[in-house]
Protein 1
Amino acid sequence: MNASDGQLQCTRGCAFGPVPSRRLGQSLGVNTVPCKTCTYSCVYCQLGPTTDTTVERKAYYQTETVVEKVIDRLRGLKSVPDYVTFLGCGEPTLAANMSGILSGISASWKGKKALLTNGALFWMDDVRKESLGFDVVLPTISAGNEQLFRKIHRPHRSLDHRKVRDGIRRFASDFAGELWVEVMLMKGVNDDRRSLEEIRTCIEPLHADKIHLTAPIRPPSERWVLCPTKEAVELAMQLIPGSVDTTGHEEGGFCLRREKEVEDLLDMARVHPMREEQIIDVFRKSGLSPEEASEHLARMVDEGVILRTEHVGIVFYRTKE
């Protein structure tokens, strides 16, 4: 089955946001795969364990439907986002029609497009070729050896550290846009001197334009995953030249469509767990008082529409699947 069959339906969440991003400003998200369809099942993932770990590319959603939803959302916004970003509920490069979706969006919207990817499929010629069309590509490199690669990412059985590393290098050598590498740091996992030096060795040949140090600031898949200490982040910046600290919480509000604030909130919270104050702010923008906003959020939790959880002393909410 391909994307033109008309039988594939993007039932919800093909486009969400824009959401405030620590790296991309106001970013409108594009989902190209169903929730938790990924090449990895990362221990730090904010969406929980992967339910479909795969390396098989498919057209999960009809190309025209995704493009239409993205363009419709762009037209309904009060302000232009900084980026349209392919990310969402899983690994976006698993979508066999990713390039068609990108072309369709580009035909109507001339702003910048970004690809947030774990980079696991860059060993595939077609994935590298299709990804060349983005303005910015953000691959993840959080492990410098096979042991940590498997511990952190819990990849599909066909993947190994060298295969993924070499694929990212091949892509970087051909890519004319900006390459921004993400390093997810976790306390006691990959934030020691040796691990950081091995990560640096993987990154150096890429000649990345930016290197972002990030942390599991939202509730991770595994409870034992914790944010690195300030000292560990400082060590990482010393050992990985050019790296910057983006381990803090994002700043800025959420851009919502008038009279569709709650619908947009649920779409965002499905792929982007939100802090309590962020959700209260959304309800206030829809016209509720602070007291009414808190009461409405409590009802949504009681009704099972949204799930409440805590991480490092901060309350987060995520849409229930």
Protein 2
Amino acid sequence: MNNIWSIAKKELRLYFSSPVAYVIIAVFLFIWGFFFTSILRWFNDQSLQLAQNPYYYQQVNINEMVFSPLMHNITIFFLFLLPALTMRLFSEEKKLGTEELLFTSPVSVSQVILGKYLASMIMLVVMLVLAGVACIFPFLHGNPELAPLLNGFLGLLLMGSAFLAIGLFFSSLTENQVIAVILSIGTLLLLYVINWAAYSATGIWQGVLNYVSFFQHFEEMTRGILDTKDLVYYLSVSFTALFLTQAVIESRRWR
């Protein structure tokens, strides 16, 4: 565990010693703030109009009308932002020729992978915590439900962890960071929208396509539904991507 944490700290120092961490966090918070204020302003206008009809006003739900669409919009930007966190983790080591030094040290391959993955996960947690600060204001002036909101943030964390694991895998395949980020975005986008094909599919294929899609699992979590199949899905994707990363590095290490 000490080795994993040492590698994670090294990667975190590299993140914050360059503009990468600051730019990614700043862009994420700007996007979050823009959508949050825009959707909140729209919700306020809708509430004022519906207040004239007591029946419809009782149906107003800030979680469904503000937080749920906000988080869905953010997942789209995760497709492009999170691969930027992982694109250099192995690609840069390979390009600079420091990969051999890293893997001939007493640290195991799995510890190296987990250390780099942990560093990117810490960055993701920092981003979500900072974004969560803005969610305090609706609680001061309204009555949103806490459980669905926390469930939505859990969904963002699980989806983000899967995105990072996939990005780490593609970073291990090439020394070119641009290629790594393009492959990551392309794969994530495919897994995100693959449920669109389910509309024209029938039988077992419809269920398979829906299950494979990132969107389908996240949709339920934003509605406050915490299902074990969604947890298993995201954890399985993360584990599989990390396992493939280790397989790629091990094959290169013993070549």
Protein 3
Amino acid sequence: MTSGTPGSKSVLGLKSQANVKPWEWLGLVALLSCPWLFVSHAMLVNEIAITALFAVSLDLILGYSGIVSLGHAAFFGWGSYSAGLFAKLWIPDPLMGLLFSVLTGGILGLVFSLTILRGTDLTRIMVTLGVSLIGYELANRLSGLTGGADGLQGVLMGPVLGKFEFDLIGQVAATYSVLTLVVVLLVLRRVVNSPFGVGLTAIRDNRLRAESVGLSVAKRLMAVYCLSACVASLAGALLAQTTGFASLDVFSFERSADVMLMLVIGGAGWLYGGVVGAVVFKLIQQELSSITPQYWMFWIGLLLIILVLVGREKLFSPLRRIRP
């Protein structure tokens, strides 16, 4: 009778976790079917998919790496404006615009990753918030290029893959965004279930211990911050492409705060927590804003209090037990 080494068992365990479970396939298929099941709410589905993608990008650094950020909208805004300008000034092809936004957003994330390597959580919060404010002011000042306070208007996109024109009801846009979300989720679940992802959680739990066992903490944090910036820029690019507009709102503090609330609702450190949080938050916002347009944030605040007092684990523990 033979037995494998602990290292080999760990590798086999990671490979097993990296395999997509049947329930996950069902969930992903359900996501893909939403633009066709809810045709009259296609634009809402599109907005939820983009917001979920943005929430997942924040979860990479917050939930898996322990990096607190209140200025993640900087990368979301960069992706939105870069995709819009790419379409207006160069090529209106959607996929080329996504690629451009992801690459440039990754470079921006790599540059600013140097700012989160040192200091406490409070320092990181202030630095990331400052980066977002800089992006807001630059977009406002460069009005000849970005439109300033009026926003970047008239972003006309070509058909997806040269065949699928964006329609007025938003069904093609919703399918485009949801499909992008599903592809990103499949890629990221491989990342978080790899040795790299395990190293990130080790750094999050105890940075000194991770350094003592030989993990390159700085390189891993820079890499995940860059990856997170790429995903956030991708979400921003989708917003500009599917709405034909980019405004200063994409850099706002409220944008970063909302996505943080979504992770509180869905759960950080769980790949699908951002998706669950985005769905719950957007649906509640949609319903409450139609009932009490002036006070819907009051009910959101009440929900957060209930989550804290009752415990999110009791509400979402059945889902969290089937982790990706």
Protein 4
Amino acid sequence: MDRFQAMQVFTRVVEANSFTQAADNMGLPRSTVTTTIQNLERMLQVRLLNRTTRRISLTPDGAAYYERCVRILADLEDAEASFRDVTQGPRGKLRIDAPPSIGRLILVPALCEFHNRYPDIELALGMGDRPVDMVQEAVDCVIRIGELEDSSMVARRIGTFEFVTCAAPDYLDRHGYPASVDDLARHQVVNYFSSRTGRIIDWSYMVDGKPVDIPLQSVVSVNDSEAYVTCGVKGFGLIQVARYMVAPLLESGALREVLSDVRAPSMPISVVYLHNRHLSPKVRVFVDWISELFQRCPLLSGAVSSPCFDTECKFAGETGTADTIRGMLRHREVEDAVL
């Protein structure tokens, strides 16, 4: 039995959650896939998969073996890629995961540029609202917001999340502008709650050089980032949001900035990958490209630290109303979606 082929068959079955689908994906007869898994289990003397008429699932031994197979196959692919003729350029499937807002507003509008530069790389872009296990799910790199705590990862900082407090003109005409952070207590705000815990996420500001969380009461709270921004545009109250996501709304006047002299803590944006991916040509060129992409826009590179903003960040792709600003990510939604 070819052990590497058996590993490939096993990982394809797990990822497809189907013997038949895995066989179709690999261009093999279903009987060959079934026999390969049976022989693999016989050789290892453990059961890797639980099988029923409707579904398959990993056993604990199967989950551990799958994780190791993913690592071994990825290392093999990286080793082969390192010794290919350099004139061919990087190639292969590149699996990426990003927060929905970054994926929709930044990556997707610019993917044609990446493809034109590296036509032999097949991109698989995930934009889910859940943490991703890079090893278990064979993800090559992820874009994350906030400080990295996992020492098994390598993080390259590519940008900065800067936040703005704003509201609709109609709301400010009715309630006035807050003059200080203390004034927020008498204002109406829109709150965001965690979809995992249900907990309201406090607002945060820098006070005397230190970040201070400020709990605020609201008449409406949501757990969807687009709905959060829409509530602000419709005049429900003040919102605190990443500046680059609402720059067109600030420019058009649909939203107005308040408390411009008081800043919320900024957060780093990083591209993160496993230690054993650092030599992969496809990962290296993507990391370089995404870093270059973020540096084109002062709102994301950290170059803008004043109320002004640059709407020439062409890759953001959106230019006008709340209906066209998709996937807005509220301050510290990273707790739910991207950490």
